[in-house]
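Supplementary Text 2. Reproducibility record for the structural model of the 247-residue chain.

All settings were left at their defaults, and a single model was retained for analysis rather than an ensemble. We include the record here because the model underlies the residue-level annotations in Supplementary Table 4.
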Amino acid sequence: MENKAKMITVYPIVAGNGAKFIGTNMAHYLKVANPTKKIALVDFNLKQPYLAHALTNHDEIHGIDNLIDKIDGNLLTDELFVENMVMMKNNVEVLKGTKLIGKHKVFTEKHMKAIVEHLKNVYDYVIAVVSPEVDNAGTVYGIHEADSVVMVSRNNVANAKSAFRALGIVNQYKKTTDSVKMVYNMHTSGSSDLTNFVKDSELEVIGLVEYDDSAIDNLDLNGNQSVKFFKQKSKNQEVFTNMVKNL
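Retained model, structure tokens:
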């Protein structure tokens, strides 16, 4: 089967920038904009794997760990792959992260390559979230196989100091010629050094996500009555809607 999916990898400049939140929202609003398309949200963050955990009805059975033996035995098919995806209420399908001890050392290039191949066989869009470190196959192969890389930053000193290193990693491993995109999460006025770096590097900024205390995590998609980001107009709803148009 010919690979058809567009894969977008969400890469945080430093840990704690909210890449999981950005990735989950990207997947949600891609589904809103493309209701007939199949959207996959994938946890390739092998260092801190907790993507969309509360949005999957706490499914502890399915996930990326179940694929290892099948890949090693050359037994993995698209059908078996899909069985380990978890459907959220918004009809985005999630590949949950690893629970294995020494998790980032277990997965190899072979595993990641096979997983990406099946994702691209089955889905129209794949949103993969990775960790900022490159000591694991999830980050390296997630960037390498991406059609587009979206760097997630916060406008502070820590990000300004790490931005050059992060962009160097992305440029080293990505195989496409697409421009790298940038999203500011919890945006506030902050480091002018980072602003200058983005300008000098000609990074395309596709979103400024403001801090919103009604949307501090991804429980929104559960329909939690106390968190109504997706139930009523939010100051960031239009930001995400426009963001996915530029992916």
